[in-house]
Specification:
The complex is a heterodimer of chains A (144) and B (297). Chain A is an alpha+beta fold. Chain A has 2 helices and 8 strands; from the N terminus they run ββββββββαα. Chain A has 2 domains: 83 residues, ATP Synthase, domain 1 (Sandwich); 52 residues, Single alpha-helices involved in coiled-coils or other helix-helix interfaces. In chain B, strands 3-2-1-4-5 form a 5-stranded mixed sheet, with helices on both faces. The chains are: A alpha+beta (144), B alpha/beta (297).
Chain lengths: 144, 297
């Protein structure tokens, strides 16, 4: 029995399909969800969400926090941000990371709020960079 | 009687105006469509979020545990987030929502402070001397969640620190191109008992009844509510901003359409006058000539 997976953000419905397995970045650790999972409600961390479907390549999403509801036949991800791996703009992610790191290292006095925000930006950017890299490796096997 | 040249000048002026209003009408129509699309795109999230929240409130023992954002307290001070536009020339759009808000404040009979979004609302309420504790302007045409986040965060923070005991959201609901309805609705506290009512009103089909299965919570219920409830407020503010934007553009579109129509009517009238005056002048000249010839005989 497949699971109906929906990934939504406030701005759009990112993904909706029947899948066989979901690997999600829960705030307490990565969790794999198979059909008939017990009802669960969890918060999500920044990380990679992998969607597995038999006979198809894994799909990968960059998730930027939020929460997830699991029912035996249904998984709903309400993400603060969600991007499919092939939508990620690697250059922009790297730029964002540099910007945030520069801010932290500039020695300027930052308020607690600003500091957490910069740290979150770095984490977010690193997730996206990692996922984007992984995808490009898979698609273009190394030639050397 | 105005001279021929004056009339001609007026006709040209009005033609220019009608060109401008027609352009504005077309721009407003395009922007309205975009705002509407965004409203539609945010609906899946809204439906799911309502569902989760309702499941959560149906959980055994959920009534016993309270979260500050779900708790009603005696109301001494009220906050209103008022969403208007930055620019005018949108028919009765701003007047209507400002008037509805004033009526609401009068009925409330409690001290009210405002958070305004859009310059028009700020102007209206500063003029009558209401206290505005925060203002936002320059909401982009295609707002992202990040653009409206600070508005929601002020509401949540001020509700939690006791500045407000209740927060309302005043905006214009987009019904269709002709009808936009000003509404004032409660944003905080969220009342668990009323959740379903509210959800049914907004997303009729999405509520499933029956006993929800008991959840496993990770990390725990309190932490989850801490994450989910502010998101919920953010979502409502985001949707309100989009609705207001769609309403603004459609109000402007209608206003500009009737302005264009009026200008065209005026041009038709003036052209008629112009021709009549011209003809009269010609007739008079001919009479003069005929009179002159007559006198020479």
């Amino acid at each position: 029995m497949p699971i109906k997976l929906e990934i939504v953000t406030v701005e759009r419905l990112t993904f909706s399909d029947d899948v066989d397995m979901v690997i999600a970045p829960g705030s307490e650790g990565v969790m794999g969800i198979l059909p008939h999972h017990a009802p669960l409600l969890t918060t999500l961390a920044y990380g990679e969400l992998v969607v597995r479907k038999q006979g198809q390549d894994d799909l990968s999403f960059a998730i930027g926090g939020g929460f997830m509801e699991v029912q035996p036949d249904k998984v709903t991800v309400l993400a603060d941000a969600a991007e499919r791996a092939d939508e990620i703009n690697l250059d922009r992610a790297q730029e964002a990371r540099k910007r945030a790191e520069g801010l932290l290292q500039s020695g300027k006095k930052l308020s607690l709020d600003e500091q957490t925000r910069a740290e979150a930006a770095i984490r977010r950017a690193m997730t996206r960079i990692k996922i984007a890299r992984k995808r490009s490796k898979r698609r273009m096997p190394r030639s050397e | 009687m105005a001279s021929l040249r004056d009339i001609k000048r007026r006709i040209n002026g009005i033609k220019n105006i009608s060109q401008v209003t027609r352009a504005m009408q077309m721009i407003a129509a395009a922007k309205m469509r975009r705002a509407q699309e965004q409203v539609v795109a945010s609906r899946p999230y809204a439906e799911k979020a309502w569902e989760v929240l309702i499941h959560l409130s149906q959980q055994p023992g959920s009534k016993a545990q309270f979260h500050p954002l779900l708790t009603q307290r005696p109301v001494h001070k009220v906050g209103i987030i008022l969403i208007t536009s930055d620019r005018g020339l949108a028919g009765g759009y701003n007047t209507n929502i400002v008037r509805a808000t004033m009526r609401f404040i009068d009925r409330l009979e409690k001290p009210v402070q405002l958070v305004t979004v859009g310059r028009k609302g700020r102007g209206a309420f500063t003029r009558i001397g209401k206290q505005i504790i925060a203002e936002f302007g320059d909401i982009p045409d295609k707002p992202t969640l990040l653009d409206v986040l600070p508005i929601a965060q002020i509401a949540v923070a001020d509700f939690l620190n006791g500045t407000f005991d209740e927060v309302y959201l005043a905006y214009t609901d987009f019904v269709n191109t002709i009808v936009q309805k000003p509404v004032v609705k409660r944003l905080l506290p969220l009342l668990p008992d009323k959740l379903e009512e509210q959800a049914v009103a907004e997303y009729v089909d999405s509520v499933r009844h029956g006993v929800a299965p008991a959840y496993i919570y990770e990390p725990d219920r309190a932490e989850l509510l801490n994450i989910i409830l502010p998101r919920f407020t953010e979502l409502q503010v985001y949707q309100a901003v989009l609705e207001a934007l769609a309403s603004e553009h459609s109000a402007r579109m209608v206003a500009m359409r009737s302005a264009t129509d009026n200008a065209n009517d005026l041009v038709a009238d003036l052209t008629l006058t112009y021709n009549r005056v011209r003809q009269e002048a010609i007739t008079k000249e001919m009479m003069d000539i005929v009179g002159g010839v007559e006198a020479l005989k």
